[in-house]
Amino acid sequence: MTRSDTTTHPYLGTGAKGHLIGGRVCPAQDGRLFDTCNPATGEVIAQLARGTEADVDAAVRTARKAFEGPWRSWTPYQRQALLFRVHELVDQHYDELALLETLDMGAPLSRTRAFRGFILQTILHYATQTANLAGETLPNSLPGAITTLNLRTPAGVIGGIIPWNGPLISQWWILGGVLASGCTVVLKPAEDASLSVLRVAELLHEAGLPEGVVNVVTGMGAEAGAALARHPDVDRVAFTGSTATGRKIIEASTVNIKRLQLELGGKSPDIVFADADLDVAVPGAAMAVFSNSGQVCYAGSRLFVERSIHDEFVARLTAFSKTLRVGNGLDPKVQLGPLISARQLDRVMGYIDGAAAEGAALAGGGQRLDGDLAKGYFVAPTIFANVHNEMTIAREEIFGPVISVIPFNDADEALRLANATDYGLGGAVWTRSLGQAMKMVHGVRSGTLWVNCYGVIDPAVGFGGTRSSGYGVKGGLHHLEAYMDTKSVYIKP
Ligand code: NAI
Ligand code: MG
Q: Which residues form the active site (predicted)?
């Protein structure tokens, strides 16, 4: 059965939804609930269990028991077959998942539906990883006939803390790592967008996942999230979110020296040289920020444009931004949805209002949208021109549809300005010159860099950050290291 009707979906409406622990739906131990909204309308769409330390503890104990249970003896082939069944079920239920995500966090259907291929591909990617978790045999110079090897074993119970800007996608990095490696997990989705995470966990059980391998505790970051991060029986934490919260997770990890995988904030440089193909670079640079209304960790929010084309580029960027359809994403023609919450709206409008005072020139947008959209948290695609790298809008992560265009004179200056930040997540260069492109590829301090494109990600290649944007690549050759221990073994026959 697919449930793609907004009025009858059992997740929507007044019936309270619980945590999912040990394969069973259960309320918070103290019975408390919280509301989750549709940011396009401001309406409460569901009530969820407000997890406490006690709920997290119950989920972690369940995950530990499952880790030590029959799941441990599942062969790689069995985990692979499970992931193939999961792939089937997610494919069958994809429209329903996309709809839940659109209602819960506002990204338009045009976006949530478009991720179908990426998500299915990611599941298959991790299905193949189950059989590729090899250790190594190593030469040694020991006396006697001792054989030495490095054995890889699953790390144990993972705590997965997920942000709200795209849980339909971001949960798979964690679920893929957990199911490929044979770990178990307690997921804490963001309070503003938990529904797709709860629904996927149900589908996993439908596919035959043993109880307790994947558990979901809903609730607030400072309550359920913090309890998970500091729990002494959680072996690893995978976290995506703000650098400020990432710092708290690092502090909490000292309790039991948890290893972490952190993908934090960004202020990524997007560098356009005068020789770039502007027909490609203008929409590319615009959507490097406006996609998901700017709520993307790797948004190219510092747009460095070579001075000789600055004014032309700003004019074309502004014209392009006016063609974007902003609105309630249930309309399939809508390209940009609302911000996630009233809190994020205030935050983004605070940056916009502060920019003029610092001397940035508003070239387009700059206001909250009213009329039919007044009940939601909509901001017009906004462009500031002639920004300096030291202005607040060029230093801090805004996480809204706001581009700061910063002129530069030559490649050395572009590189110096691009690297004058604490962050190091994404970045791009647009040019026809291979030499210029390679100078940026080697010189920009970031975990990911695109040339003449932006934001394309393949699970087999991976994506990650450096400096204050975190550590531990998602996807690629090294992702599974975050879910595995290495044991050095010395065997004397
Ligand atoms: P956040 O980093 O606080 O939230 C992300 C996740 O962490 C949520 O699941 C939240 O419940 C959880 N969390 C919050 N406090 C926690 C704690 N003390 N211990 C454990 N888990 C905790 O981000 P927030 O407050 O929702 O958004 C604020 C800003 O963070 C945004 O404006 C944006 O700049 C940045 N952000 C960046 C994201 C990224 O993908 N890089 C994603 C979300 C937010
Ligand atoms: Mg919501």
A: 263
